[in-house]
Recover the amino acids of this structure.
DNA sequence: AAAACGGGGGC
DNA sequence: GCCCCAGTTTT
């Protein structure tokens, strides 16, 4: 166990951050949703909407099935609403997610000629897109310097002792100041994977954790 | 049985 | 800021 990063020197902190991300990156080489969506803006957007409060293992098959039927907003709108619902049902929240998908696709067709807008302000105006998904799209689809903080990133970075915060937005700000920009994109994927495989909310498997020696283990049983 | 799941929207 | 959404898997 190590001291939290906000209590050690800047240079040492920066080395530790690199080490952690490198190690996670080799431990979790595959990111299923990332492989499905690639960097295609429409697909990243749809994966983002569907993945809210759902597990990757559930979301991935749904995204695959959906992209077989439609890989752009116009063709998604052709799918009957009932059919769309039945596809989304397994991951829960299917009424909201179906409506959000259709509404967003209508906006894309009507206002953006079927393309996905490239600014945060425009993205969050779409249905089913909040801060997290907007940043995901900016980062993954458009290669912009956005950092995407979800509950996994929040929980893990707090446990590691990288930031000290109860608030996701605050965690996002602290991480932007702490982590090198070129790492932002991978950070989200490796932490999500790590959160699902190992660093669970209530009982993390520290004994099989690849980065345990760099973890401050702050609030291990509390952080969500 | 309960908790968890890559949040977002309406109020 | 609070509460709801909803079905499936894991503990």
């Amino acid at each position: 166990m190590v001291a939290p990063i906000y209590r050690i020197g800047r240079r040492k902190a920066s080395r530790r951050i690199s080490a952690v991300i490198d190690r996670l990156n080799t431990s979790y080489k595959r990111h299923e949703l990332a492989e499905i969506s690639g960097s295609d803006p429409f697909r990243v957007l749809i994966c983002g909407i569907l993945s809210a409060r759902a597990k990757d293992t559930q979301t991935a098959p749904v995204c695959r099935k959906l992209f077989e039927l439609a890989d752009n907003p116009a063709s998604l709108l052709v799918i009957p609403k009932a059919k769309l619902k039945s596809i989304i049902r397994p991951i829960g929240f299917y009424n909201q997610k179906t409506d959000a998908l259709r509404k967003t696709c209508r906006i894309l067709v009507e206002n953006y000629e079927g393309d996905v807008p490239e600014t945060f302000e425009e993205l969050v105006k779409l249905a089913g897109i909040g801060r997290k998904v907007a940043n995901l799209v900016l980062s993954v689809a458009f290669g912009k310097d956005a950092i995407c903080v979800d509950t996994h990133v929040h929980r893990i970075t707090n446990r590691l002792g990288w930031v000290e915060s109860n608030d996701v937005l605050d965690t996002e700000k602290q991480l932007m100041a702490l982590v090198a920009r070129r790492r932002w994109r991978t950070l989200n994927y490796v932490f999500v994977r790590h959160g699902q495989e190992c660093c669970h909310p209530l009982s993390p498997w520290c004994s099989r954790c690849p980065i345990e020696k760099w973890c401050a283990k702050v609030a291990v049983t509390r952080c969500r």
